[in-house]
Write a structure and sequence with these properties.
Number of strands: 9
CATH superfamily of one domain: SGNH hydrolase
CATH topology of one domain: Rossmann fold
Largest sheet: 5 strands, parallel
CATH architecture of one domain: 3-Layer(aba) Sandwich
Strand order of the largest sheet: 4-3-7-8-9
Shape: globular
CATH class of one domain: Alpha Beta
Oligomer: single chain
Distance between the termini: 100 Å
Strand content: 5-15%
Structural class: alpha/beta
Helix content: 25-40%
Order of helices and strands: HEEEHEEEHEHEHEHH
């Protein structure tokens, strides 16, 4: 009898060993092995809110390395749109999309309409991190609602957009992920409004007194601006270099060009940015 029991136990162990159990952590309840359920849509982790994002000082050894060679990021079905000939749109037709470094255009009243301009699209929080571009919301000026970039573009159908984005992303994004997100943003805009003319503007330099230089500095910004230019070239879009118009001989944003925190421009430097943009696009 004892031998029969041992034989049955061995047979059961052989059968269990050959079974392909799901890759789920087991637990013991009353001597019985159970498996945790697979995650469902209701338990999936939602994307973080863009309002909670801010520039943080990330140690270099904690920054993930994704600097693998990039590839052609043009998505099937999206036709690159070349910048229109001079006269296709006016300066007043341009929508300026970006983060807090773009919001200064409104704060300083640099555009038509002054501080009530409707040409600036930025998040309510001021922060728009590149890898959140597909779901982060911006304040839509016509009704002050908070909607995604794609939704806003689909509603408004801008004649032209100047994008200045990526300064927060340089703290943790490598070439491949940066270019992929930037290209995806452009594809989303063109899908929502195929006739919109997109101008990719460089990220602005930071000053020597910026407190997060370990994470965001001009070496990283210069590299990211190359990536922006590469995506613009792949998509057949105009790239406008504002960085070289702002950076000083010492490699930093001059003190007279910033608002005191080392990151954000003042009215003097915004005048330089806008004059350069008008010259590059042959606008008056």
């Amino acid at each position: 009898m004892r031998q029969l029991q041992l034989l049955l136990i061995a047979l059961m162990m052989a059968i269990l060993g050959s079974c392909d159990f799901p890759d789920r952590p087991p637990s013991m309840t009353g001597g019985v092995i159970t498996f945790a359920p697979y995650p469902t849509e209701s338990t999936a982790v939602a994307p973080p809110s863009s309002a909670a994002i801010d520039v943080i000082d990330i140690p270099d050894d904690e920054i993930p390395n994704s600097d693998t060679p990039g590839s052609d990021t043009t998505e099937p079905g999206v036709t690159p749109t070349l910048i229109a000939e001079p006269g296709a749109f006016a300066f007043e037709d341009i929508i300026f999309l970006g983060d807090s470094t773009t919001y200064g255009l409104k704060a300083y009243g640099m555009l038509p309409g002054g501080k009530s301009t409707t040409q600036v699209w930025t998040p309510k929080s001021g922060t728009l991190t590149l890898d959140h571009q597909s779901y982060a919301t911006i304040v839509y000026p016509p009704d002050e609602s908070e909607i995604t970039i794609r939704e806003a573009v689909g509603k408004f159908k801008p004649k032209a957009m100047v994008i200045t984005l990526g300064v927060n992303g340089v703290s943790f994004m490598g070439r491949e992920s940066f270019m992929k997100e930037y290209a995806d943003m452009i594809d989303g805009i063109l899908t929502s409004s195929p006739d919109t003319k997109i101008i990719c503007q460089s990220i602005f330099p930071v000053a020597a007194n910026y407190k997060h230089l370990k994470s965001i500095n001009n070496d990283k910004i210069v590299a990211a601006n190359v990536w922006v230019a590469e995506v613009a070239d792949q998509k057949g879009l105009r790239y406008v270099d504002a960085y070289s118009k702002l950076v000083g001989d010492d490699g930093w944003l001059p003190e007279s060009y910033q608002n005191g925190d080392g990151l954000h421009l003042n009215d003097t430097s915004f005048n330089i940015v806008l004059s350069n943009l008008k010259e590059e696009l042959s606008l008056t």
